[in-house]
Structures
1.
Amino acid sequence: MNSRRTFIKTTGVLSLIPWLTKRVKAKSNQIYEAPIVVSTWNFGIEANEAAWDVLSEGGSALDAVENGVRIIESDPEETSVGIGGLPDRDGHVTLDACIMDDKGNAGSVSYLQHIENPISVARKVMEETPHVMLSGQGALQFALEQGFRKTNLLTDKARKAWEAWTLTSEYKPIINIENHDTIGMLAMDQSRKLSGACTTSGLAFKMHGRVGDSPIIGAGLFVDNEVGAATATGMGELMMKTLGAFLVVEFMRQGKSAQAACEAAIQRIVETQDYEDMQVGYLALDKQGNVGAYAIRPGFSYALYQNGENVLLQADSYIKGK
Ligand code: ASP
């Protein structure tokens, strides 16, 4: 579409572009035009495009977030989500995902193997079962019953990376590069309804059976249509121990702006957890359309599609500098 423009701005955006600075720091009573979609990391640009295709046609935020993150899940070159995701330390690709709609419904899958689009299985859990989360073999069985196909998720690229890792088998979280990343996406549709999705292959070379924050409602994602929505990326254990996404939304409920809420939730980690060498990034979207983003360290990028522009931004962080 000619009317759509994509801008990639990777440095100093908040300080260099006054209108962006204004938006990020806006008071929560300022109302922005919908639709809006925001998502984590550089691949958020591509995911936002797919979400915008739905939103611009008047589609629901729920359809938009599912459509948006599926693009990244299905990209074999992305080594942190869906097919192509880096395996656990025993060589198995295990996926975590969750989704929430504007009515407070939630669906989730954890430790799911062999299925390319866990977000769509999570949505089926939400819509077709009386439960919120299915895990492991049961999640796979449910997916197959729902018509999902079994796929080999371990690409040659991921297998080679794992084989190289087995030479030392040294597990150390690496900040902001392919060792871990998640696509978390929040959207507001034309009727100002909110939904969110979060999907990942989790930490690369994690212990077999490890599940992170991404499928945990309230840790990796939370949506409250009255208040706003939040999603998380980074070292999942830190968000799980502080129920990060829920905390961000609760801070907004207490009156903090989307930005201040993300900062306060990072502050909670910094004050209560050992976060050495670890990264966490939060994204928030409030009911008025204000976006917040904040991380422990520099390097957390996110993509914001609003007013027909899809922009890559750098979040501010608790630790400054490079
Ligand atoms: N939060 C994800 C996890 O801990 C990984 C990430 O976002 O980098 O599984």
Note: The first strand starts at residue 5 and ends at 8.
2.
Amino acid sequence: MRVLLVGSGGREHALGWKLASSPRVDDLISLPGNPGLSRLGAVVDGISVTDVGAIAAMARVQSVDLVVVGPEAPLAAGVVDAMATLGIPVFGPTRAAARLESSKTFAKEVMTRAGVATAASESFHDPDTARDYLSRRDGPFVVKADGLAAGKGVLVTENRDEATRWSERWLAEGPVVVEDFLDGPEVSVFAVCTDAGAVPLAPARDYKRLHDGDEGPNTGGMGSYSPVADLPAGLTDDAMREVVEPILRQMDEEGSPFRGFLYVGLVLTSEGSKVLEFNVRLGDPETQAVLPRITSDLVDLLEGTAPEWSTDAAVNVVLAAEGYPESPVKGASIRGLDTVPDDVLVFHAGTRSEGKKLLVDGGRVLNVVGLGSSVDEARAKTYEAIQALNFPGMQFRTDIAAQS
Ligand code: GLY
């Protein structure tokens, strides 16, 4: 079969790597892809991932048999609806179902109707009402842009004035949600939702702050690992029964059936686990630590077959550009990739080829993934491989998976 993969980051390289290993996949086409994906098949440049009409037309011209969508923006723009109109099989939610990520207010309302545990929240459309609400609350304050904000729309602060300014800044672009702070460790749980039902993947943990010890600014994610040892027994089964299945039933009842990857961000509070957020796609950088642990076929999984797992653990450390996350510096030359051992995977995220050179071309540049019989062994392999990799200004955390 010929598969079209939409997206260009580390998550998409991991998806493409797994798809290309399937005996069912003859051709992989990535749009727009990256230098890592270009080694696995053709890459198509010049079409925006949100230009759903152009992507659908291209899929038809290329006689694509299956479309797999990595990031949220094309899903929220309706790429699945466009494929369905043309009768092209596609894995992902419709635009209406993607509102579980593209509108935090919608997600909260569906959770309430489905009886799913989450932080209490209020949505606001004007600054005066938001300011008045914040003035009557105690911190920590959690203020979120309602819509997609590429990971930049969330503020957690003890400072009321800062929270108020944040609400005003994002209200200029749409509604904001103010919610109660959930205290506890976070974990990402994933479900593969098909007509055959929902199948869980192994949970993973990611690291959102730039520096060791969870210090510094928020990022798109500086690393991840799987499996996660310090979880309550039965957490995945509980999340399927108490979150995923009620949400799928609710979405069915509301006429927006959800198909695709459902990412459940959970906080393990003293009152039990509660939903922090939904995403309608796999996590980045969690995917890079989860997919290498699956020994069975990814296309079978996308059709609803439960995955088989290796006993290996995986630890993914992100190498980020100088200036990330505020203003990543592009153009530095990346060295040492040819020294990475075969049992360490490197997924490209923000790179560009120029002749024989590989250059930094984004904030998160590479994902280095070591596998081992334990998290500690996988972690040691990852950090050993990183010693041979470098580019000017390279930043990475040294404590990914250190506590497990
Ligand atoms: N790792 C967080 C996310 O993918 O949204």
Note: The pocket of glycine is lined by residues 206, 221, 279, 283-284, 286 (CB under 6 Å).
3.
Amino acid sequence: MNILLLGSGGREHALAWKLAQSPLCDTLWAAPGNPGIASLANCTGLDATDHAAVIRFCEAERIGLVVIGPEAPLVDGLSDSLRGAGFSVFGPSQAAAQLEGSKGFTKDLCARAGIPTGGYERVTSEAAGLAALERFGAPVVIKADGLAAGKGVTVAMTMAEAEDAVREIFAGRFGEAGAEAVIEEFLEGEEASFFAITDGSTVVPFASAQDHKRVGDGDTGPNTGGMGAYSPARVLTPELEALSLTRIIVPTVRAMANEGTPYSGVLFLGIMLTSEGPQLIEYNCRFGDPECQVMLMRLESDLVELLLACAENRLSSIAAPRFSNETALTVVMAANGYPGTPEKGGSIAGIETAEAGGAKVFHAGTALVDGQLVASGGRVLNVTATGASVTDAQAKAYAALDAIDFPTGFSRRDIGWREVAREADHA
Ligand code: AMP
Ligand code: GLY
């Protein structure tokens, strides 16, 4: 079967790598792809916002499965357009993608379905937002309602910070995404991510991971899209995983189906492990980046079979995905300036040497200019390795990273630190 993958980041390079391994995959297309993906797929310059053009392409190339990587085309309804034209799509409908596209929608759904999450208020003006802050007190969390490229959330430790965040949202910093906001109770605990695949009725647990959102070592500095991750996240014990499934994921999938907007695709759950059990921080309607990279390094079963069964509403008919017991860990190499304005054009060399020892280097923000690989985005490479423990995978990932010559880039040196510390305690 011919497959079209949409997206251009490290997540999509990992997806392409795994899709291309499947005996079910004939020709793999990617739009727009990146130089790493180009070694596995035919890249094409399709514009994902032009739904008619994507449909024409799928007809011309006889595409049997479309895999949508990022959230923007999902929230924009591309999967509805493609399904309407008769294509199988991995990714939720526009109505179901509201689980990521509107924080207020998700909080209301949690309230209706009794799903554990922080207390909240939805507000549509600065005055209402400031009044709500008085009721919550600090610390408190302020979220722009819509998609804000990961920048719409402020965890405010003081009332002054909280008030600034409310004022910024209603001054228009996030445009339409900030027409509404959610004021939310501050939750305390360790964060983890859990992923499930669902076709709207059957729910299949996928894997867990832990991301590192702050730019600096020791989780300091501004928030980013994620500077590194590892999988599995052992802090999410089998017991906590089961609780997350029964108390959060399954009731969400049931509620979405009952309300006429069944959710089909991957459900990415951000969880706070509080003293009262796992609580939902947020949903995303896609794989995490870079969480996807580490989970797919561990996936032993056929990704095409899984995503196709999901797209065709027959997840109950296939075997559960199988994962290696090893840990996978990825370190993001970012361009200087990230998460502000990243420096573009810096040369990159040494990827083959880095991969010689078994590591895998996924391209996240690279371009080929006159045959030279250069940086073209904030997050540039994901250096990924597996090992018997987080400590072992971390050592292998950094050994590979140190073989890469990227003078205008930087990375955190402590990815996996929480688990490395726990492993040292248990040694
Ligand atoms: P999000 O963009 O929703 O992933 O939020 C970004 C980050 O803000 C999360 O990864 C958490 O670290 C933090 N956060 C979000 N909501 C809360 C909350 N209710 N309590 C504490 N931290 C939160
Ligand atoms: N790494 C976090 C995300 O993909 O949203």
Note: The pocket of glycine (ligand 2) is lined by residues 211, 225-226, 284, 288-289, 291 (CB under 6 Å).
